Amino acid sequence: MKISDEILHKLHELDCEDVAKRFGIDVKRHKAHCFNHDDRIASLGFRGNHWKCFSCGIGGDAITFIQEKFSVSFVEACRILTDEYGIPISYGRYSAKRTSPIINWCKKESTSDTSCLFDREVAEFIMEHTTLTKAGFEFLREQRKIKIDVIESSKIHSIEETNHLKDIIQAQFGIDRLKTVKVLTSNGRYLTIDTPSLIIPYYDYNNNLIGLQTRYLGKVQPDFNIPRFKRICCSSIRLYNMQLLNSIQPGARIFITEGITDCLAMLSAGYDAVALPSATSFPTNDLVKLKNYNLYMVADQDRAGNDALIKLYRFMLRFGCEVKRIELPNGVKDFCIYYVKTVKN
């Protein structure tokens, strides 16, 4: 879909501080805590139609803000902003008055809102009271052909119904705390974890739990707009499989993938790999820790993958580290698809 230059100009000129406030960022004296990392001192600054984090370096205009905040594409970010500000725009067969389901999710039930700090205690409780269910195992092993030892070492769990977990976690922590960290919906009636879903833990290089992400395994239901991925417990954007750095030496080869399943496929194929949560999610503080390694990116064969590669290349070049690209065969979108097609059971 092509967005007109006139619309893009209007979006570019939006006041970024106003945009941030509309989407849940607590701005004081033109500064806020950055949503891209654990930020105890406000490092996110706003000035007119620009914003920038002076800690991790991300920044841009209103469109970039929405892309980074909610990990959505350029077009989706434009759609969110036009809906919020009432800017008429045509979406082909959709009416210009159409209310975007993305806008409702972002503002009302966003589990990607990292204005609070990661609640490790709640996250650890969730991991202690869940396991890898049959649906989760079948997805990883039967559909994606992930090796058993990789499944076990990943410590990925899954959930197929939420009533039991809701009861015990609410009894342990109370409704208010769980609402604050986006584990309960704003009305306190439901868990924000959709079912069935994987529950994917993130660890740092010291094996400390630093984040939880869910991956919806159910069928796409257009009427409900269930996002495939969610970050819960106020998890910020982090690099997946950081604990790898404990077992390899500087100068070793590391492959960077887009997404967790690609990373698990790389590990199953015998390669050392870490993962960006998505093509638009850049945990810059974590990526800096890779500067002394030999980096290769296995980017998806689409525009988002190419943009992600360019962004990663430019970022790591600041630290004297050149990222090299691994080319997938023509017609193969990502490494997981390639792996499933070529692996021998």
Question: Outline of this structure?
Answer:
With 345 residues, the chain is α/β, with parallel strands linked by helices. It has 14 helices and twelve strands.
Radius of gyration over alpha carbons? 20 Å
Order of helix and strand elements from N to C terminus: HHEEEEHHHHHHEHHEEEEHEHEHEH
Classification by helices and strands: alpha/beta
Please name the fourth-level CATH homologous superfamily of the largest domain: DNA primase, catalytic core, N-terminal domain
> What portion of the residues fall into strands of 2 or more residues?
5-15%
Morphology call:
globular
Mean pLDDT: 86
Unreliable runs: 91-115
Distance between the termini: 41 Å
Q: What is the name of the CATH topology of the largest domain?
A: DNA primase DNAg catalytic core, N-terminal domain
Total beta strand runs: 12
- Helix percentage range: 25-40%
The largest sheet, given as strand count, sense and whether it forms a barrel, is: 4 strands, antiparallel
